[in-house]
Design a protein that fits this description.
heterodimer, A: mainly alpha, Serine Threonine Protein Phosphatase 5, Tetratricopeptide repeat, globular, B: mainly beta, Methylamine Dehydrogenase, Chain H, 4-stranded antiparallel beta sheet, 1 helix, 28 strands, about 5% helix, cytoskeleton (chain B), ARPC1 (chain B), repeat (chain B), actin filament binding (chain B), WD40_repeat_CS (chain B)
């Protein structure tokens, strides 16, 4: 039973990675058209928290990071981002902060402040308390 | 004003319970004692202390009392404590006389509740078990029956369905479970209804797997049709049609997590917790639950910080320094938060009148040592849900 599950998981992982590659190309073109908010939305959409495969998580983090670093206008981002994305964005901000990379952390802290104002402490709690659906 | 009485009884209160006529309140001031106060001429005075020196030295609690419940009809108090024991206290003359209940636990007892018929009580514990206790006439003794399996962590709260059989529990493993507690000789066949109709003691009816973090504060609606509980991830869960295919709703809110909830009607729930201010949740005509508003006066927002809560000082410091490089005293560390409770609220109880299922008054207690009585009268925007 365990081995079949593992196989399905690996099969899924390939499919997910292909999807992320698609997303990556779309994000690049959106960034070229200077639509960073659209790019971030695309990156957050269909992010794979349910899978346990670290490769998928890392692959998606790379595309989210790419879109995240392109954000200049944080207020503008948050007012055009639907509330349903707040929790997942917060998770990626904490992933960014955990890298320890100076420019990434600066950017993540900047967004974190504005996101907390908007989404409240509950958003942080949901992100920290969820040890199952990690990004 | 929704808070009609604020009483500072102690430094910190772990739990409280009301006498049947609401003239007396029993609470644990964060130690091994239970204090009972009575209201006489607008002043609360201490009338009893349920603790070891009043009675037999060995018999009473020697650790924190974690749960108190006062039965409304039979006027008995049951207490549960971290010392792994429970006592049922009977008023004989002017003295409260305890009866030890050996729960057979190897970890702390965390919560206790009388069943609706008051012939059983349930204790949740840190030993991943629930004890259902009942009185055995022939032995003059409270017997504890254990539900050992199923829970993967501490049982944080228990709630009885109005049918006296179903028991809901929440656990630190994040799950909410519903068990049958049918005990031969205590319960009668005809009292069994609905999904529990053919289940034995300890049988699990359903396991609700909605939360990914600790679950707390489970409660049934007055009719027993809806169940509510909270997760430590700032979520509250509402479950209808308890049975093989339950209907669940997850409601996320923007503030700190809740610890306990109370149904004031079928369509309105009050949640209390780390935000120090009761929150109102209600269901619209389609049965969709959502956060309505805070019950207390909205907290005054001080200039030093944008976050009106316990974390505000730390947050203020973090952002204050990162933005302007200011020193710590930019944020006053000891400002009043302006709410009625100053610390986490961990207990909410109805002050219901007999025969009326809608709760107009309720009380809250918390780590700030206050017992606050709230009234929902004259809340125009909430009256449609009552």
């Amino acid at each position: 039973m365990a081995s079949t599950e593992g196989f399905v998981e690996a099969d899924n992982a390939e499919a997910i990675i292909t999807r992320i590659e698609h997303k990556s190309r779309k994000i690049e073109s959106l960034l070229k058209q200077s639509k960073p908010v659209e790019a971030l939305k695309t990156a957050l959409e269909g992010s794979p928290p349910k899978t346990r495969d670290e490769r998928c998580k890392s692959a998606n983090w790379i595309v989210v990071h790419r879109a995240l670093m392109a954000i200049k206008d944080v207020e503008g981002l948050l007012s055009s981002l639907d509330a349903e994305y707040y929790d997942i964005l917060m998770k990626y901000l904490y992933r960014g902060l955990s890298t320890g990379d100076r420019p990434t952390c600066d950017q993540c802290l900047r967004i974190h402040e504005k996101l907390t104002e908007r989404a409240g402490l509950g958003c942080i709690l949901r992100c920290l308390a969820d040890t199952v659906n990690t990004v | 004003m929704t808070a009609i009485a604020v009483n500072q009884f102690a430094q910190c209160i772990t739990c409280h319970a009301w006498s049947p006529d609401h003239s007396m309140v029993a609470f644990c001031p964060n130690n091994n004692e239970v204090h009972i106060y009575r209201l006489s001429q607008d002043k609360w005075e201490k009338v009893h202390v349920l603790e070891k020196f009043l009675h037999f030295v060995l018999k009473q609690h020697d650790q924190i009392v974690s749960g108190i419940d006062w039965s409304p009809r039979s006027n008995r108090i049951v207490t549960a404590s971290h010392d792994r024991n429970s006592y049922v206290w009977n008023l004989e003359g002017s003295e409260w006389v305890p009866t030890l209940v050996i729960l057979r636990l190897n970890r702390a007892a965390l919560c206790v509740q009388w069943s609706p018929k008051e012939n059983k009580f349930a204790v949740g514990s840190g030993a991943k078990t629930v004890c259902v206790c009942y009185y055995e006439q022939e032995n003059n003794w409270w017997v504890s029956k254990l539900i050992r399996k199923r829970h993967d962590s501490s049982v944080t709260s228990v709630a009885w369905h109005p049918n006296n059989i179903l028991l809901a529990t929440t656990s630190a493993d994040g799950k909410c479970r519903i068990f049958s507690t049918f005990i031969k000789g205590v319960d009668t066949k005809d009292s069994r209804t609905g999904p529990s109709s053919d289940s034995k003691f300890g049988e699990q009816i359903v396991q609700l797997d909605l939360s990914f973090s600790w679950a707390f504060g489970v409660k049934w609606s007055p009719s027993g049709n809806t169940l509510a509980y909270v997760g430590h991830n700032s979520m509250i869960y509402f479950v209808d049609e308890i049975g093989p295919s339950p209907l669940a709703q997850n409601v996320a809110f923007r503030d700190l997590p809740l610890r306990d909830v109370l149904f004031v009607s079928e369509r309105m729930v009050i949640g209390v917790g780390f935000d120090c201010n009761p929150m109102v949740f209600a269901a619209d005509e389609r049965g969709i639950w959502s956060f309505i508003r805070f019950l207390g006066e909205r907290k005054t927002i001080s200039s030093g910080s944008k976050y009106g809560s316990q974390f505000s000082e730390a947050f203020g410091k973090l952002y204050g320094q990162s933005k302007h490089g200011l020193s710590n005293d930019a944020v006053e560390p000891s400002r009043s938060r302006g709410g009625i409770h100053d610390n986490c609220i961990n207990c909410i109880l109805p002050l219901s009148q007999s025969g009326i299922s809608t709760v107009m008054r309720f009380s809250t207690s918390g780590l700030d040592g206050k017992v606050v009585i709230w009234d929902l009268e004259n809340q125009a925007d909430l009256s449609e849900y009552l």
